[in-house]
C-alpha cells in the first residue's frame, strides 16, 4: 500500500532508512522557507484570499508528502505546478457544490472570480489582457508575474519547453496587437512595435 | 522590449512586490509548518505476495457490467428537474472472499487503471453508494457512478473505505471492479497528487 516514487533515488527517499526523520524535516524546512511567500503570491494572484489560504495548506501537505521529488527537481516551478493542480481540483469541487446548490436554489452565485488588478489605473491594458484566452493569460502571468522562463513554465504546466516558447511568443504578439488596436496612432506607445510583435 | 512588455503586464499584478505576504518566520507560519510536518508520510506496510501479478490480488472478484439506464435526471426541488448528460456507470466494490493481500502502491501501476475519477457521494443505500463525478481522469464520461457490493469485511481485508454522503473520493477501477489497497480512497491531497501524476490534472 505504500506509495513508491519510481524516480526517487533510494538514498533520498524519506521512506528509506537512510533518510531519517531529522534529515527529512531539515529538507522540508529549507523548501518551506524558500517557497512559502512565492506560493502565497501565486495562489492569491489566482483566487480569493480565503481560498488561497486553504489551498496553501493543501499544497504544503503535498510538498511534505512528495519531498523526494522536490529534492531532485527544479523545486519552485514544481511547487507552482502542485499549486496549479490544487486550485484546479478545488475549483472542480466548488463547481460541483454550486451545481448541487443550484438544484435547490436555482440562484446560486458563481464562485468569486479573481480579477486582475489595474482595471482602474490601466483600463486599456487590462482590457487588452482580458481579451486574451485563459491559456495565453496564464502563460503571460507565469512569465511576468512569477518571473519564470519557458523551461520553468513548462514544468508548471506539464508541457514541453518548446510548446511553452511557442505559446508565449504567440501570446505576446496577440497582446501587442490588442494594445495597438486600442491605440491605432501608436503615439506614446513605442514599447509595442507597429506590427504588434514583441521580440521573443 | 521584452522587459517593457513584462513591466506592463506587471502593472496588472494584484500581488506585486509592494503587497505584503506572510514571511515563513512568523509564529503562525512556523506553527503551520510544524502542523504539516506532523502528518504521516506513510501508511502501514502490507505484505507483498506476488509483485508480478500487479492488480490481481488486490481486486475484488465480482464483475458487474456497466449498465445504461438512460439519461439520469437530477430531481430538483418542487419537481424542477435538470437533465445531466451521460448514463450512470456501475462499479463493484467486491465481495467478502476477496484475497487479503495488497501489492505495493506504485504510481506506475495506478497509471494502468482503466477507470479513474473523482466524485462526491450523493447517497448511500445499504451496500450501494452513488457518486456524482466531479472530474474524469480516465475511462468514462458519465455524470454519475454507482458503487455496489461493499461490506465491512472488505474494509478490514483490503483497505477499502466507508462511503460518506457529501465526501469526495478518488476511485480507480479495472473492468467493473474498484481497486483498493490505496488505489482508491477519500480524496486527500496526497492521493489527488498521485492521480494527477498518473493521469494528468
Report the mean per-residue pLDDT of chain B as an integer.
69
Q: What would the CATH topology of the largest domain in chain B be?
A: OB fold (Dihydrolipoamide Acetyltransferase, E2P)
Radius of gyration of chain B: 22 Å
Q: Structural class, from helix and strand content of chain A?
A: mainly alpha
Domain module count of chain A: 2
Sheet of most strands of chain B: 7 strands, mixed
Q: What assembly state would you assign to the polypeptide chains in this entry? A: heterodimer
Contiguous uncertain segments of 5+ residues of chain B: 43-85, 95-100, 153-158
**CATH homology-level superfamily of the largest domain in chain A:** Winged helix-like DNA-binding domain superfamily/Winged helix DNA-binding domain
Unreliable spans of chain A are: 1-18, 107-114, 186-200
**What is the CATH architecture annotation of the largest domain in chain B?**
Beta Barrel
Shape of chain B: elongated
Order of helices and strands of chain B: HHEEEHEEEHEEEH
Mean pLDDT of chain A: 75
Strands of chain B, total number: 9
Molecular shape of chain A: globular
Q: What fraction, in percent, of the residue positions of chain A are helical?
A: 55-70%
Could you please say which CATH topology of the largest domain in chain A applies here?
Arc Repressor Mutant, subunit A
CA distance, first residue to last residue of chain A:
47 Å
Amino acid at each position: 500500500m505504500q506509495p513508491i516514487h519510481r524516480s526517487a533515488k533510494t538514498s533520498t527517499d524519506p521512506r528509506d532508512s537512510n533518510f531519517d526523520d531529522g534529515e527529512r524535516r531539515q529538507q522540508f524546512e529549507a523548501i518551506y522557507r524558500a517557497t512559502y511567500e512565492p506560493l502565497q503570491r501565486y495562489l492569491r494572484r489566482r483566487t480569493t484570499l480565503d481560498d488561497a489560504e486553504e489551498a496553501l495548506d493543501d499544497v504544503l501537505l503535498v510538498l511534505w508528502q512528495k519531498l523526494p521529488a522536490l529534492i531532485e527537481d527544479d523545486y519552485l516551478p514544481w511547487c507552482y505546478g502542485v499549486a496549479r493542480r490544487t486550485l484546479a481540483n478545488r475549483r472542480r469541487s466548488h463547481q460541483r457544490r454550486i451545481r448541487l446548490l443550484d438544484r435547490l436554489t436555482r440562484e446560486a452565485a458563481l464562485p468569486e472570480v479573481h480579477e486582475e488588478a489595474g482595471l482602474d489605473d490601466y483600463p486599456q491594458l487590462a482590457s487588452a489582457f482580458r481579451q486574451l484566452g485563459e491559456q495565453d493569460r496564464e502563460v503571460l502571468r507565469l512569465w511576468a508575474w512569477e518571473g519564470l522562463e519557458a523551461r520553468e513554465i513548462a514544468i508548471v504546466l506539464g508541457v514541453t519547453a518548446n510548446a511553452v516558447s511557442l505559446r508565449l511568443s504567440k501570446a505576446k504578439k496577440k497582446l501587442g496587437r490588442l494594445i495597438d488596436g486600442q491605440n491605432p496612432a501608436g503615439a506614446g506607445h513605442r514599447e509595442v512595435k507597429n506590427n504588434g510583435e514583441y521580440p521573443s | 522590449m521584452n522587459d517593457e512588455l513584462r513591466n506592463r503586464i506587471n502593472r496588472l499584478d494584484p500581488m506585486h512586490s509592494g503587497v505584503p505576504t506572510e514571511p515563513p518566520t512568523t509564529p503562525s507560519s512556523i506553527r503551520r509548518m510544524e502542523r504539516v510536518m506532523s502528518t504521516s508520510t506513510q501508511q502501514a506496510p502490507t505484505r507483498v505476495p506476488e509483485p508480478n501479478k500487479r492488480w490481481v490480488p488486490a481486486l475484488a472478484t465480482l464483475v458487474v457490467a456497466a449498465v445504461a439506464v438512460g439519461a439520469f435526471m437530477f430531481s430538483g426541488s418542487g419537481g424542477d428537474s435538470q437533465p445531466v448528460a451521460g448514463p450512470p456507470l456501475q462499479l463493484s466494490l467486491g465481495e467478502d472472499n476477496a484475497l487479503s493481500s495488497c501489492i505495493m502502491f506504485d504510481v506506475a501501476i495506478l497509471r494502468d487503471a482503466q477507470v479513474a475519477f473523482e466524485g462526491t457521494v450523493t447517497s448511500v443505500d445499504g451496500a450501494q453508494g452513488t457518486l456524482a463525478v466531479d472530474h474524469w481522469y480516465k475511462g468514462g464520461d458519465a455524470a454519475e457512478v454507482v458503487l455496489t457490493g461493499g461490506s465491512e469485511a472488505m474494509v478490514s481485508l483490503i483497505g477499502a473505505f466507508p462511503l460518506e454522503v457529501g465526501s469526495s473520493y478518488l476511485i480507480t477501477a479495472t473492468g467493473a471492479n474498484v481497486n483498493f489497497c490505496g488505489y482508491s480512497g477519500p480524496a486527500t491531497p496526497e492521493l489527488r497528487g498521485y492521480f494527477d501524476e498518473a493521469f494528468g490534472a
